[in-house]
Specification:
Helices cover 38% and strands 21% of the residues. The chain is an alpha/beta fold. The protein folds into 2 domains: 211 residues, Aldehyde Dehydrogenase, Chain A, domain 1 (3-Layer(aba) Sandwich), CATH 3.40.605; 187 residues, Aldehyde Dehydrogenase, Chain A, domain 2 (3-Layer(aba) Sandwich), CATH 3.40.309. It has a 7-stranded mixed beta sheet with strand order 17-20-21-16-15-23-24, with helices on both faces. Strands 12-11-10-13-14 form a 5-stranded parallel beta sheet, with helices on both faces. The protein binds NADP nicotinamide-adenine-dinucleotide phosphate. NADP nicotinamide-adenine-dinucleotide phosphate binds next to helix 7 and helix 8.
Length: 496
């Protein structure tokens, strides 16, 4: 984290680009309380690939959080953003984002180090999420209540309206700087909830630009504020502020639990970590498995909460799968994330690279076999397959969040289920099998938010309910589900 103190005049150009007069560095003013912030303290955003400065964003503090929350209350109280307009704005934003897809993909690459091929997928999914949010806005309605089913209800009419919960505090992580923001803003806008958004300090630019795009699409200028800064300072102030009624958080388990403790009297929706398993049964098509893991395990350098991390394979196919993975992973290109050919770019920071490399080293010291990869070259950790990590190693037990896939053999499906369910996390699991009987057992016995058959656990579409069982969270995203979380039911009884 680097902090700059300067007073600089900033121009907002028509095409959404921002730059500072007389300076080579882009300064990107976040929208707070309806205005682009005239900051005199700035945070550097660094390119994870080469450490260069991508731009600067305002270094907000708790006074900005307070201004943003107050503005959100005013926006809500105006009552001038009806449901049909909210749907129109979300649809218009989806069109604009699709038109500017390349520009947004480039921003995602520069601030997160994600390969451009993955960044394009992220933009595409973000467009989908905005469209699904528009659909959710069009269909948002309450329920009839069958009052005459009780003698006391006879002759009366009862229904439950869905009313916006109020101002939403949204806090997002670094690894999907655009898509996860759309998963918070889309449903909140659909519901009629103003938002104060705290994006990751490492990847705030996509979020700032998305909110500007939403305003261009017709969002009231003060409906969403973006408070950029650190979690301890700005994030904690937002969680503690009396205005937000809901804290919607995606990120690590430690921060999620801290927010849960701090957000007294608020609803807290958590999307947390995983160390996603994949079960490979004897009847699985190994070519298909290897291809799915090659793609899913190493996209975004393995920095997704549902990247396949623990591949559990029946012992009869263990050696074959290890060979297939070695050969498939050897074809991945590691390098500059802006290059079209690159599959695997840098991790978000050199510190994270060192952490993952140390976990690999520790597992290898205890007998794990490094099948391929394991090397750090400059800022790049090469895609790695580890066979038989000790079950007590960090590599097996924790979330790696790096380009590493581990392989562990099992004796029968009962053991596979036990191993998969063994950790505290339960986001999504993949099961490769051609047996209907095994499929049915998997669906019944695997304690996860999503059970994907013949797919890697990374697979996702915006309209599905997405979220974790056990320690992986307490909510479901996907606009048609998230809109329920961001509303309250108001029961109405009519009597003549
Ligand atoms: P993180 O360190 O937990 O940070 C997430 C956000 O919380 C950031 O904006 C961070 O701010 C903020 N924050 C930190 N401390 C805070 C506090 N005391 N109060 C309020 N906010 C605070 O997570 P990350 O490293 O950015 O992201 C990776 C994690 O996200 C992984 O564990 C991954 O599994 C998880 N994730 C989960 C899902 C899912 O859908 N379940 C999806 C994607 C990622 P700063 O970082 O700016 O300081």
């Amino acid at each position: 984290m680097h902090l700059h103190v300067a007073s600089i005049t900033v121009d907002l150009y028509r095409d959404g680009q921002y730059s500072a007069k007389g300076s080579g560095v882009q300064q990107i003013r976040a929208r707070v309380a309806g205005r682009h912030l005239a900051a005199d303290r700035w945070l550097e955003v660094l390119n994870p690939y080469d450490g260069s400065e991508v731009g600067r964003v305002p270094a907000c503090d708790p006074t900005h959080v307070d201004a943003a929350c107050r503005a959100a209350v005013v926006a809500l109280s105006r009552g001038d953003f009806p449901q049909h307009r909210r749907a129109q704005v979300l649809d218009a934003a989806a069109v604009l984002l699709a038109e500017r897809g390349e520009e947004f993909a480039r921003t995602v690459v520069l601030e997160s180090g994600k390969p451009v091929r993955d960044a394009r997928v992220e933009v595409h999914r973000s467009v989908d999420t905005l469209r699904s949010s528009a659909a959710a806005a069009r269909t948002l309605a309450g329920d009839m209540v069958a009052l005459p089913a009780s003698a006391r209800g006879q002759g009366r009419l009862g229904f439950a309206l869905r009313v916006p919960i109020g101002v939403v505090a949204a806090i997002t992580p670094f690894n999907f700087p655009l898509e996860l923001v759309t998963h918070k803003l889309g449903p909140a806008i659909a519901d009629g909830c103003p938002v104060v958004l705290k994006p990751s300090e490492r990847t705030p630019i996509s979020a700032i630009r998305l909110v500007d795009l939403l305003v261009e699409a017709g969002l009231p200028h003060d409906w969403v504020s973006v408070v950029t800064g650190t979690g301890e300072d700005v994030g904690a102030a937002l969680v503690a502020h009396p205005v937000p009624r809901l804290v919607s958080f995606t990120g690590s388990i430690g921060v999620g639990r801290a927010i849960e403790r701090a957000a007294v009297g608020k609803r807290v929706d958590l999307e947390l970590v995983s160390n996603a398993p994949v079960i490979v049964e004897p009847d699985a098509d190994l070519t298909r498995v290897a291809e799915a893991i090659r793609t899913a395990g190493f996209s975004n350098a393995g920095q997704s909460c549902v990247c396949p991390q623990r591949v559990l394979v029946h012992e009869s196919r263990h050696a074959d799968l290890v060979r297939a993975l070695r050969d498939a992973v050897a074809t991945l290109v590691t390098g500059d994330p802006l290059e079209e050919a690159t599959h695997v770019g840098p991790l978000i920071s050199p510190r994270e690279t060192s952490r993952v490399a140390a976990w690999i080293g520790a597992a290898a010291d205890e007998g794990a076999i490094v099948v391929t990869g394991g090397k750090v070259v400059g800022r790049l950790l090469h895609p790695t397959v580890i066979d038989q990590p000790p079950l007590h190693s960090d590599l097996y037990r924790k979330e790696i969040l790096g380009p590493v896939v581990t392989v562990t053999p099992y004796a029968d499906f009962t053991e596979a289920v036990r191993l998969a369910n063994d950790r505290d996390f339960g986001l999504q699991v993949g099961v490769f099998t051609s047996s209907v009987a095994t499929t049915l057992r998997a669906v019944r016995e695997l304690d996860f938010g999503g059970v994907l058959v013949n797919e890697a656990p990374t697979w996702q579409v915006g309209q599905q309910p997405y979220g974790g069982a056990r320690g992986s969270g307490n909510t479901r995203e996907g606009p048609s589900y998230a809109v329920q979380e961001m509303t309250e039911l108001r029961f109405v009884m009519l009597s003549a």
